[in-house]
Design brief:
Elements: H1 11-23, E1 38-41, E2 45-52, E3 57-62, H2 65-72, H3 93-104, H4 107-112, H5 121-134, H6 139-145, H7 151-157, H8 159-174
Antiparallel strand pairs: 1-2, 2-3
Helix pairs in contact: 1-2, 1-5, 6-7
């Protein structure tokens, strides 16, 4: 998925989208993520280390170059990583989601992603999980990577991939 280019006052939402897509974080976890949660770990490199609020699970996420570039955008104007268009922390997850919904209603978004009116931040978490499945990770690894205690959630978030894979196998066998 391509991230839309943003005007300077919308970089905060580009960062929200990028972080969600490239870390699988819950929206609940983003407003509380601090700059101090980004550390250099020996033999691993730069990583985001956070406690998943909903499940109270420690989750480390390696900062890949694409995520690093998104995180480097803009100034550090608050102790939190994710900020609103004024450079202030979002007071709640709801406020961040409201800004997202308002942004989706603008022509900037509709022009950049014309077929994405139903795109949600949670949907990006599902996309992240599906990409992990596509890369061959098991349900338990996916659940760990997104901060879920339940292995079944790793399977749930990436289940559509299994169905697509099954459909491809069926098509290949039927073509014989």
């Amino acid at each position: 998925m391509c991230l839309p280019s943003e005007k300077p006052n919308r970089k905060s939402l580009r960062q929200v989208i990028g972080r969600e897509l490239l870390t699988g974080m819950r929206g609940l976890d983003m407003p509380t993520l601090m700059h101090a949660d980004i550390k250099i770990i020996p033999n691993l490199g730069k990583a985001v280390l956070f406690d998943a609020e909903k499940k109270v699970e420690f989750v480390p996420v390696v900062v890949i170059p694409e995520l690093d570039a998104i995180m480097a955008e803009g100034e550090k104007t608050a102790v939190t990583v994710v900020t609103n268009s004024l450079g202030k922390p979002f007071p709640t997850e709801y406020a961040m989601h409201k800004a997202w919904q308002d942004f989706k209603a603008k022509n900037t978004f509709k022009t950049a992603l014309p077929e994405s009116s139903d795109l949600t931040l949670h949907g990006l978490r599902v996309t992240y999980s599906s990409e992990l499945r596509d890369l061959g990770f098991a349900n338990c690894e996916i659940a760990d990577a997104i901060g879920d205690k339940s292995e079944s959630m790793g399977g749930h978030y990436s289940s559509h991939f299994d169905r697509l894979e099954l459909a491809a196998k069926i098509a290949a066998k039927m073509a014989r």
